[in-house]
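ok, trying the design again with the full structure, not the truncated one.
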């Protein structure tokens, strides 16, 4: 087959692949995933090494522009982001209109979309220079929106952080004003958050990233594309799993800690319950991010002096699942979100903010994928279907219908 001819073919054979389990939607040079071996690399660098040695902003630069930044490039990138971190005061009025009970993912998706209204020049971007402006704007403003979403919910004043701090330290500062009275503790939290955000930063063509690319393929602006990605991330089968995991672990604890009972529930095909935080579309061996996070959860809780009984329940479930033929046969292992919520909770982040923290981490990945898609001048995303409805029918007047 001459593949180049397929570029123009719109009729003829249509493949159907529900859930796109075996369908590639694009070529990409950003993230490499080998599910069977548990390998994850950003731009060729292993996730283990990046989580150990890099900080989140360096990783963001790497994902978006393809290379690790030099010190000069990194400083300029950070300065450009800081210069764009102020959001319009009227955004506070929008935030005011939400009930305190609103789910933070709904709030943050709306506020991100609203950024387009306050920055109309961000809609029609074509040159690399215009793209760069949108990129630093969203990286500057999004953490402010995240912090304000949390603080508004808690009835606390909305303000900015401290420009002299690093990107991640400033995020914690904005969220908690004083992350912790003790400097040592705040360093522990900054390092843990840095690691968590790096581990979430990209994961090739997952549900939310595919959403960002497909919305962006219509040449909708970056902020609108990212707002759509946030909505896609919200669901419990995707990013919402981190909230669902903690709620599940809490429920098991309240129910007396009987993990076996919940294992049986998860295996019962009549019961819609699934073991949240288990299974992955691509990783059929182990999720390399889960390994790193499990270790980090131990370290963070220990250094903060927190003894969290749900960590023991999580470890118990993992141990049982690894020995259970149902999970072994289906290759269901803990995924990135099985342990992340335990760390977020240790940091004092409320459960319904967990998926927002995931969005904060995934932001560079969404940006990188959007930018790659635009620079490669990809066509508008427009899947086909196999029609299974009625064949042609004659119209019946309303008084003659039975
Ligand atoms: N608990 C119990 N059974 C499960 C689970 C689970 N967590 N996950 C999959 N299965 C079973 C399915 O029932 C199915 O069984 P069957 O073959 O007897 O019908 C089999 O394993 C395959 O499952 P699928 O749903 O077909 O796998 P898919 O690749 O479509 O789904 C997904 C992957 C959505 C992650 C799934 O494993 C799941 O729902 N996990 C729980 C939610 C979760 O943790 N999501 C976060 C994913 S990571 C992320 O997005 C950041």
């Amino acid at each position: 087959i001459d593949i180049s001819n397929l570029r123009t073919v719109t009729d003829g054979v249509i493949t159907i692949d529900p859930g796109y389990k075996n369908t590639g939607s694009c070529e990409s040079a950003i993230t490499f995933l080998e599910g069977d071996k548990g390998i994850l690399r950003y731009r060729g660098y292993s996730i283990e090494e990046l989580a150990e040695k890099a900080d989140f902003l360096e990783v963001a630069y790497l994902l978006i522009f393809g290379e690790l930044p030099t010190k000069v490039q990194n400083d300029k990138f950070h300065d450009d982001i800081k210069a764009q971190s102020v959001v319009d005061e009227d955004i506070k009025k929008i935030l005011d209109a939400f009930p305190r009970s609103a789910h933070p993912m709904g709030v943050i998706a709306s506020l991100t979309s609203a950024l387009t209204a306050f920055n109309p020049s961000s809609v029609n971007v074509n040159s690399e220079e215009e793209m760069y402006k949108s990129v630093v704007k969203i990286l500057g403003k999004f953490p402010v929106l995240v912090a304000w979403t949390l603080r508004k919910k808690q009835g606390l004043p909305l303000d900015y952080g401290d420009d002299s701090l690093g990107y991640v330290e400033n995020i914690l500062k904005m969220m908690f004003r004083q992350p912790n009275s003790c400097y040592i503790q705040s360093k522990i939290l900054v390092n843990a958050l840095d690691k968590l955000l790096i581990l979430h930063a990209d994961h090739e063509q997952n549900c939310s990233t595919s959403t960002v690319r497909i919305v962006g393929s219509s040449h909708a602006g970056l902020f609108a594309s990212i707002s759509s990605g946030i909505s896609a991330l919200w669901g419990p089968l995707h990013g919402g799993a981190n909230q669902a995991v903690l709620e599940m672990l809490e429920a098991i604890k309240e129910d007396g800690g009987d993990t076996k009972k919940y294992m049986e529930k998860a295996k019962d095909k009549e019961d819609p319950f699934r073991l949240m935080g288990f299974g992955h579309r691509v990783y059929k061996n182990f999720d390399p991010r889960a390994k790193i996070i499990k270790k980090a959860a131990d370290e963070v809780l220990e250094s903060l002096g927190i003894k969290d009984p749900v960590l023991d329940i999580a470890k118990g479930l993992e141990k049982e699942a690894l020995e259970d033929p149902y999970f072994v046969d289906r290759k269901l292992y803990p995924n990135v979100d099985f342990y992340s919520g335990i760390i977020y909770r240790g940091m004092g982040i409320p459960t319904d903010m967990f998926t927002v923290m995931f969005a904060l981490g995934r932001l560079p990945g969404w940006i990188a994928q959007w930018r790659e898609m635009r620079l490669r001048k990809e066509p508008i995303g427009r899947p086909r279907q196999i029609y299974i409805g009625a064949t042609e029918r004659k119209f019946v007047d309303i008084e003659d219908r039975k």
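Keeping the full-length input from now on. The pocket of acetyl coenzyme *A is lined by residues 19, 237-239, 241, 266, 274-281, 330, 332, 335-337 (CB under 6 Å).
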